[in-house]
Structures are given as structure tokens and as C-alpha cells.
Write a structure and sequence with these properties.
Layout lengths: L6 E7 L5 H15 L4 E7 L10 H9 L14 H6 L2 E4 L2 H10 L5 E3 L17 H19 L6
Parallel strand pairs: 1-2, 1-3, 3-4
Helix pairs in contact: 1-2, 1-5, 2-5
């Protein structure tokens, strides 16, 4: 991690329409509560650009008091990775892609915090799958955020 006072965090999933946008707004809210300054962006390994968050991700965000209405998907890039202090990944394949782009990136393997093989992609599934995904990410993010250095 660098010595900037504002953390730069990127969340990564496949399409940047389900998991990573929801994780990004969750992190933003959690860090705000912890009084940790951060800029959070999200991206996807499939390089889908300009798409809104999945309607079920938006719904789960609203249920949690969060807003994904302005989200538009974007693909991951070396430039994004290189400026971030932490890259929060949803699966091993996302972590591998980040490391391909920038071998020295600080990769957070979110699934490991909750003893899972990955944070399962709810794309195309009913809202209950998105709620479950949100709960798993919430638990994992709480555990990860607890490890962050405090000022």
C-alpha cells in the first residue's frame, strides 16, 4: 500500500454488472462509517463497457440503503490496477487477470475471508441469489475491512 491518505480500491468481477458494483457501494458505505477516506471503482474482466448494473443488483443495493442507479460497467485495465492500493476480486480467475496486468498489485481474494471457492456470480438468477451474494460479500468485506490500517 502507498502512503496516500485516501485509499484507492477497485472491485473486480466478470461483467462489472452484478458483484463488483454492489461490492463497491458496500465498501464505500463501510469505509465512510469507519472514517476511512477512499475512492472506490469497479471493473470487469470481460471488458463490457457502458452497461447499467443488473436490476437485481440495484434492488439489493436499495434494500441495503445503497444506490447503483448511476453505475455503468467498465473493463479492467493496467492503468486502473496500477493506481489502486487494493484490488478486491470475486474469484480466482479475476485475481489471475489482475496479476497478469500488474504482478505487484495488492490482490484481495474476497472469497477467502468466508472460506469459499469464489463469490458466486448471481447473473441471470432470481433476486434471492443476489441477496445471498450480497450477504456473503457483506461478511467477507467486514472481515477484510477490519484488517485495514487505521490512522
Amino acid at each position: 500500500m502507498n502512503t496516500k491518505t485516501t485509499l484507492r480500491i477497485m472491485t473486480v468481477c466478470s461483467g462489472n454488472i452484478c458483484r463488483s458494483p454492489l461490492a463497491a457501494v458496500m465498501i464505500k458505505e463501510k469505509l465512510k462509517t469507519e472514517h476511512i477516506a477512499a475512492v472506490i471503482i469497479s471493473s470487469g474482466t470481460l471488458n463490457i463497457n457502458g452497461q447499467p448494473a443488473a436490476s437485481n443488483s440495484k434492488a439489493v443495493a436499495v434494500e441495503r440503503g445503497l444506490d447503483l442507479s448511476h453505475h455503468r460497467s467498465q473493463g479492467i485495465s493496467k492503468g486502473f490496477v496500477d493506481v489502486c492500493d487494493y484490488i478486491v476480486c470475486m474469484s480466482p480467475k479475476h485475481a489471475e487477470r489482475v496479476i497478469e496486468l500488474s504482478p505487484n498489485a495488492t490482490v484481495i481474494r474476497l472469497w477467502e475471508y468466508v472460506d469459499q471457492d469464489e463469490i458466486k456470480d448471481p447473473v441471470g438468477k432470481p433476486i434471492e441469489a443476489f441477496r445471498t451474494c450480497g450477504e456473503i460479500m457483506d461478511n467477507a468485506l467486514n472481515l477484510w475491512i477490519a484488517t485495514l490500517p487505521r490512522a
